[in-house]
Design a protein that fits this description.
With 162 residues, the chain is of the alpha/beta class. The chain is 43% helix and 14% strand. The protein has five helices and five strands, in the order E-H-H-E-E-H-E-H-E-H. The model has no long low-confidence stretch (mean pLDDT 95).
């Protein structure tokens, strides 16, 4: 699958880590970490964009999702902001396609069903009427995550979301 940008669920340093973040950095090559150093990190809920270097995608959008702390510390809003800011960066660069992971649902322990609902609803709300985005992919690590995203999309459509 080729997309203009992939979204990396990064840590605040943007310098690579474990899991998918580390795999993206390794596959992109050392130039990615050099560019990330110049960004001076990223706050939780924000996103920054770099070149994709050796990746098939032209860009990597690095976003820092919240660590789940029981839902009383603004985690929902911060997660929504990750998706919203990533889409804004796509609009700013007239990108046609983007692939999102299930942000914060791994080691950050955000409840998967709740995260899927936020991902789908926020993405649908953030798409501008005159958008360059032609397709958005939710790249789910597990069958359960894919099912939860499908369910959230069905609920959004049933409630009249565009």
């Amino acid at each position: 699958m080729r997309v203009d940008a992939i979204v990396n669920a990064a840590n605040t340093s943007l310098l690579g880590g474990g899991g998918v973040d580390g795999a993206i950095h390794r596959a992109a090559g050392p130039e990615l970490v050099m560019e990330c150093r110049q960004l001076h990190g990223c706050k939780t809920g924000d996103a920054k964009i770099t070149k994709g270097y050796r990746l098939p995608a032209a860009h990597v959008i690095h976003t820092v999702g919240p660590v789940w702390q029981g839902g009383e510390r603004g985690e929902d809003g911060l997660l929504a902001s990750c998706y919203r800011r990533s889409i804004e960066l796509c609009h700013d660069r007239s990108l046609a396609s983007v692939a999102f992971p299930a942000i914060s649902t791994g080691v950050y322990r955000f409840p998967a069903a709740r995260a899927a609902g936020i991902a789908v609803h926020t993405t649908l709300e953030a798409i501008e009427p005159e958008t360059s985005l032609e397709y958005i992919v939710f790249c789910c690590f597990s069958e359960e995550s894919a099912r939860l995203h499908d369910q959230a999309f069905g609920e959004a459509v049933a409630s009249g979301a565009r």
